[in-house]
Amino acid sequence: MNNEKITSILNKKLNLDKIYVTGDYNHIKIIAIGDVFKNINHVKRQQIIYAPLINTITEKKIHAISITTYTKEEWKKTKK
C-alpha cells in the first residue's frame, strides 16, 4: 500500500487539517493534525488513526506504523 492511498483513506474517514505519510511497506510514519484529537489521550488518538486502516494492517498490506498526532494548537507550538 502506498503513502497516497493511506493518506486518502485517512482523509475520507477523519476530519484532519493536515496529514503527512512517509515511509514504505516495512515502516509507515504518520503525522496527523486536527482538532479531532482535542482533549483525547495518546492511546485514544492512535486508535482514531488505526481504525480506518485496520483492514490494511490485518491483511498485512502495512507492516508497522509510527503515529504522531497533534491538535492544531499543539502543531503551531511544535512548529515554531
How are the strands ordered across the major sheet?
A: 1-2-3
The CATH class name reads Alpha Beta
* CATH homology-level superfamily: BolA-like
Helix content: 40-55%
Q: Report how far the terminal alpha carbons are from each other.
A: 33 Å
Strand percentage lies at 25-35%
Question: What is the radius of gyration?
Answer: 12 Å
SSE ordering: HEEHEH
Task: Count up the domains.
Answer: 1
The total beta strand count reads 3
Task: Write down the overall geometry.
Answer: globular
User: What is the CATH T-level topology?
Assistant: GMP Synthetase, Chain A, domain 3
Would you tell me the structural class of the helices and strands?
Answer: alpha+beta
| CATH A-level architecture | 2-Layer Sandwich
Low-confidence stretches: none
The description of the largest β-sheet is: 3 strands, mixed
Q: Mean pLDDT, nearest integer? A: 92
Count of separate DSSP helical elements: 3
Protein name: BolA/IbaG family iron-sulfur metabolism protein
Organism: Buchnera aphidicola
Family: Belongs to the BolA/IbaG family.
Task: Describe, in plain words, how this protein is organized in 3D.
The protein has 80 residues and is an alpha+beta fold. It has a single domain, classed as BolA-like (GMP Synthetase, Chain A, domain 3, 2-Layer Sandwich), CATH 3.30.300.90. It contains 3 helices and 3 strands, in the order H-E-E-H-E-H. It has helices at residues 3-13, 42-58, 72-78; strands at 18-24, 27-33, 65-70. It has a 3-stranded mixed sheet with strand order 1-2-3. The longest helix is centred in the middle third of the chain and has 17 residues, at 42-58. The radius of gyration is 12 Å and the shape is globular. The chain starts with a helix and ends with a helix. 18% of the residues are buried. The model has no long low-confidence stretch (mean pLDDT 92).
